[in-house]
């Protein structure tokens, strides 16, 4: 205790009130002045060893009680104020600590109310999903973080921007890169913008993937990135300069409410433009159809990564030159969602993407392995899914590498157009199909799924009452009627 300062003003005040003492009376019993006790109660002075010993002997206070950690409560209150609804009223760490220490019961009540609020929001979202399936349009009102606003807008629309695609193809033609896009972009930067591109070591760029130094007119790229990601970062910077107008026009067309949301959207559209520049639409579409959407062949042909090809496949929606309508989901091993896109907007209502039985979760057990399977929803909608892990930027020896997993999916009826359809049970090589293709039964999410006896169930469905029969226990963790 002597190694660290203990500020316990609110606790001392509670002890004094419990003993029904004035500050003068308590100070006298502790052998200190009333003014000093006043400073202690206001957390302007720490407890000394002598005062702690006095409190122990005179008021029979457990020393551990005086240094009882309120970190957990402070963390919970901090989480409450991280809610988008309170984004403009975030208190300081000192204020959070004062609330947790001075009024622990009030702090606990605030946390309980916030948990109930979050639970109600999740239930409203679930009910909205159920009603949407019945053709009833609903909207759950509430203040959102800018990143959530951008994601929802982009996920709800087709992942295709014709003006950006056309501008990217025209820019590609002016570069005439042949098979060397990165050198062509570097030369364009030098000749047209007076910029140079350099790859810097981790020690020089410990926090950034890419940084543009306006003073020295240099674009710095981190050596942590793979050659494919380095190319994308350079292409993004070029797109924000050469394709600024179509990107700006598209941002203006999106109903975004804040400047922060527009900044995030600009980054996302620059990323889209980079893919369009690295893999020009017509060339990529022709190659993809010719190799039956084999991602590994395409990544080799265009010198890009698995993730970049998967992203690009979700964008093939040009009028008169459509590809298979793929959709894509990317998560980490904790289930956090990074990206959803594709088809005519990510098929949230039909596919969901939150079922723990999806192979995207199993992919983490075998990094780099390709998982191909057919899945079937409760309404008999069936999909072909391809899942695989992705490796993030390279860390140092002491850092744990970032790993995510990606799922690429399409309607099962289009399996004959895709090379991965040949790997499904019940389908012969070349796409010849038999009468039955077995599919893994999945659901949109546990809270919306009514499949009985599901071993993977994590939550009960909100649409059914729980089964509370003490004489019968089902296979699922949550029995329901």
Q: What is the 3D form?
A: globular
Number of helices: 18
| CATH C-level category of the largest domain | Alpha Beta
Radius of gyration: 29 Å
Supply the helix-strand structural class: alpha+beta
Number of strands: 11
Structure description:
This protein is of the alpha+beta class. The protein has 3 domains: about 10-70, lambda repressor-like DNA-binding domains (434 Repressor (Amino-terminal Domain), Orthogonal Bundle), CATH 1.10.260.40; about 145-280, Arc Repressor Mutant, subunit A, CATH 1.10.10; about 290-445, Beta-Lactamase, CATH 3.30.450. It contains 18 helices and 11 strands. It has helices at about 10-20, 25-30, 35-40, 50-60, 65, 70-80, 95-100, 105-135, 145-155, 160-175, 180-195, 225-240, 245-255, 260-280, 280-290, 295-300, 305-315, 360; strands at about 195-200, 210-215, 220, 315-320, 320, 325-330, 335-340, 370-375, 380-390, 405-410, 440. The chain has a 6-stranded mixed beta sheet. The chain has a 3-stranded mixed beta sheet with strand order 1-3-2. Strands 4-5 form a two-stranded antiparallel ribbon. Strand 4 (about 315-320) and strand 5 form a beta hairpin. Helix 10 (about 160-175) crosses helix 14, helix 12 crosses helix 14 (about 260-280) and helix 16 crosses helix 17. The two termini are about 55 Å apart. The mean pLDDT is about 85.
């Amino acid at each position: 205790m002597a190694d660290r300062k203990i500020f316990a003003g609110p606790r001392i005040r509670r002890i004094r009130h419990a003993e029904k003492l004035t500050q003068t009376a308590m100070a006298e019993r502790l052998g200190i002045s009333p003014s000093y006790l006043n400073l202690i109660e206001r957390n302007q002075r720490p407890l000394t060893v002598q005062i702690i010993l006095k409190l122990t002997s005179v008021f029979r206070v457990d020393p551990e009680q005086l240094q009882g950690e309120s970190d957990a409560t402070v963390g919970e209150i901090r989480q409450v104020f991280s809610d988008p609804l309170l984004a403009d009223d975030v208190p300081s760490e000192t204020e959070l600590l004062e609330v947790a220490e001075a009024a622990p019961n009030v702090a606990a009540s605030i946390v309980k109310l916030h948990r109930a609020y979050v639970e109600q929001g999740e239930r409203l979202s679930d009910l909205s999903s159920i009603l949407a399936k019945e053709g009833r349009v609903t909207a759950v009102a509430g203040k959102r973080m800018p990143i959530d606003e951008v994601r929802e807008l982009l996920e709800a629309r087709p992942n295709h921007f014709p003006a950006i695609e056309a501008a990217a193809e025209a820019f590609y033609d002016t570069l005439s890169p042949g098979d060397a896009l990165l050198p062509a972009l570097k030369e364009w930067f030098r000749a047209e913008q007076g910029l140079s591109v350099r790859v810097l070591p981790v020690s020089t760029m410990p926090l950034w993937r890419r940084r543009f130094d306006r003073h020295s007119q240099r674009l710095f790229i981190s050596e942590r990135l793979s050659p494919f990601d380095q190319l994308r970062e350079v292409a993004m910077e070029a797109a924000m300069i050469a394709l600024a107008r179509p990107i700006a026009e598209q941002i203006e067309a999106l109903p975004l409410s804040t400047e922060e949301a527009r900044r995030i959207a600009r980054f996302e559209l620059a990323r889209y433009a980079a893919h369009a520049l690295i893999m020009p639409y017509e060339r990529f579409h022709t190659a993809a159809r010719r190799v039956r959407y084999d991602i590994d062949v395409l990544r080799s042909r265009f010198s890009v990564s698995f993730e970049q090809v998967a992203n690009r496949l979700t964008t093939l929606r040009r009028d008169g030159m459509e590809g298979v309508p793929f959709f894509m989901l990317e998560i980490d091993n904790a289930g956090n969602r990074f990206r959803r896109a594709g088809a005519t907007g990510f098929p949230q209502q039909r596919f969901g993407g939150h079922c723990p039985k999806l192979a995207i979760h199993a992919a983490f057990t075998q990094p780099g392995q390709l998982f191909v399977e057919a899945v079937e929803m409760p309404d008999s909608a069936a999909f072909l899914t391809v899942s695989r892990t992705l490796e993030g930027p390279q860390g140092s020896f002491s850092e744990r590498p970032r790993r995510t997993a990606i799922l690429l999916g399409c309607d099962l009826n289009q399996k004959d157009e895709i090379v991965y359809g040949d790997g499904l049970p019940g389908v012969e090589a070349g796409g010849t199909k038999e009468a039955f293709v077995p599919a893994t039964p999945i659901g949109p999410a546990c809270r919306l799924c009514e499949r009985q006896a599901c071993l993977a169930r994590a939550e009960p469905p909100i649409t059914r009452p729980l089964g509370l029969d003490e004489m019968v226990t089902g296979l699922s963790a949550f029995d329901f009627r």
